[in-house]
Amino acid sequence: MRQLLLPMMLTSSLLAEFDVKGFVALDSQVYLTHPAQKHGQNFTLQQQLEMTYSEGDFEVVSLLNAQLDSYDFFGNEENKRTFIRLDELYGKYNLENDMVTLGRNVYFWGALEVRNIVDGFNPEDLRNDPFETDKMGVMNAQYSHYTESGEFSVIVKFEERDQKMADFPYVYYFFPLFVHYEDTLQSESSRYRPTLYVSYSGSTDTEYAVDYALILQHGYDSQRYYRADDPLVGTPVNFQQHAYLVNKVSTYNTMVVADTLLKVEALYADVIDDPNISDYLHLGLGVEHTLTQLVGEADLGLIAEYYYYDTFESAKYTDLELFEIFQNDLFIGGRYSFNDSDSSSIIGGAVLDLDYNEQSYYVEYETRMADVLKVHFDYRYIEPSKDALTAFHLLGRHQRVGLNLVYYF
Length: 409
Known about the structure:
This protein has helices spanning 2-15, 70-74, 391-395, and strands at 16-33, 41-55, 58-69, 83-94, 98-105, 138-146, 150-157, 179-187, 195-204, 209-220, 225-228, 237-243, 245-257, 260-271, 280-295, 298-311, 328-337, 345-353, 359-369, 373-383, 398-408. It is globular and about 60 Å long. 6% of the residues lie in helices and 56% in strands. By secondary structure, it is mainly beta. The strands form two sheets. It has an 18-stranded antiparallel barrel. A three-stranded mixed beta sheet has the order 8-12-11, with no helix packed on it. It contains three helices and 21 strands.
């Protein structure tokens, strides 16, 4: 028996694979224009570690994110942005035409450039740069069946996570100093009440290549709102975040016509019971036309996107009270891809608010060195509304330059 077990164990170990990868990054910003009471610069050390174990059709994935804020480390006017966060730890089993996953993980949905309005499965970490994606993983189970042209999925999400915020000295804490944010989420029912998603995504093999996705949802909405415990009594005023239940339909689609990419994202939310939130619609339309080999091998993509948000019931929270930035906004920009060995690119443009007369401008440059070092530079300028209480108005006139260095291993 021992003679049989040894070859079997050796064979099993050879078939199994264990992979470790990740990065270490230094993220720095200097705020050229900012409120006087807040920090004029910020330095953050970030690390990500991804481990994958696979054996045959079974796979286990874990993803750990950690960061250290310089003000937290030196103990001077702390930003409270230092954390270790387990975003993924799940098992996945692949069959011939099916897949089953169970655990905590992250999904990405959407097609637009500036804002993916349908990408609401995972909450964002509010302690970080609001212009960068920083999703927190959530516990869920997924079953997917693959067809010849698409994928049918059923996902059950088992938790709603708190969204912590940095402290006031951090420039992107947008509440006034007298507001105290309590990060324990308030929910209409238990925060562990399951949320159900049923989706189908696919593509067409026709003259115009179309990718499409439809998602039906019942449970907690990705949009949340803030409410004071008693805004009339004393200071500081305590604000808490609230989650509510919806029936929701979302879709995101692209179509390629010659050198032009057309993009649509849309959602409609039927709010089930919350007295403060109206049923609402969010729509995003985009077009990107590519001028190929404009200079040598480089391509230039010309991008335009429009975002529209509307509520359907009066005397309930409006887009201003929900801090919804993309409510009637136009983005005009471009992407210059060098198509070199370092994957260098420049992207930028302007977001123009057509309701509240505010503008946001940005440009980003990214390149790689020796396949292990990524350099990312960005510049942003925000001219907020002068008379409407938007999120940018609370932030104030804003100008920054940033440099992010990432070493991959």
